[in-house]
Write a structure and sequence with these properties.
Blueprint lengths: L2 H8 L3 H14 L4 H10 L4 E6 L2 E6 L3 E7 L10 E4 L5 H8 L4 E2 L10 E4 L6 H15 L2 H8 L1
Antiparallel strand pairs: 1-2, 2-3, 3-4, 4-6, 5-6
Length: about 150
């Protein structure tokens, strides 16, 4: 086999790569809940409980800032995360990578960001998005704890 044959064999069109990633999440090979849980529970005064049947993380048990739809939700039939957005972040992210970010139903009008988890996921980026979501919702005193 030549190097070109190896590259051709390794190449998957984006729609096939997405199917493989979605199957891996569905089969439990990738645990998005554990990844998101670790990122969110590392933040001050965060709790987790189900909301509308999905794992959701709250500041002080009241204000939701991240919801994980590991099996999809409504017309968004793919694993994704919905998180609160800082002002202007939703438009900026969707414009920069419309295949990864989207405006989720119901909460999108309030600036929340939908993040697809059925492609190659950068978990460090997801952790940053969770921190930004926390900053968008948490009181200033708790946000200040992140800086120290």
């Amino acid at each position: 086999m030549t190097a070109a044959d190896d590259r051709a064999k390794a190449f998957r069109p984006p729609w096939q790569a997405a199917d493989i990633a979605q199957q891996a999440v569905a089969a439990g090979a990738i645990d998005p809940t554990g990844q998101v849980r670790a990122a969110c529970l590392a933040l001050p005064e965060v709790t987790e409980r189900l909301s509308h049947g999905a794992p959701t993380w709250f500041v002080r048990g009241k204000s939701a800032f991240v919801t994980l739809w590991a099996q999809g939700h409504h017309d968004d039939d793919f694993p994704h995360l919905c998180c609160a957005g800082l002002p202007g972040a939703q438009q900026e992210l969707i414009a920069s990578a419309p295949g990864r970010f989207f405006r989720p139903p119901y909460v999108g009008g309030r600036g929340w960001i939908g993040v697809r988890l059925d492609h190659d996921v950068d978990w460090a980026e997801i952790a940053e998005l969770c921190q930004d979501a926390y900053r968008a919702v948490a009181p200033a005193r708790l946000v200040a704890l992140l800086k120290s």
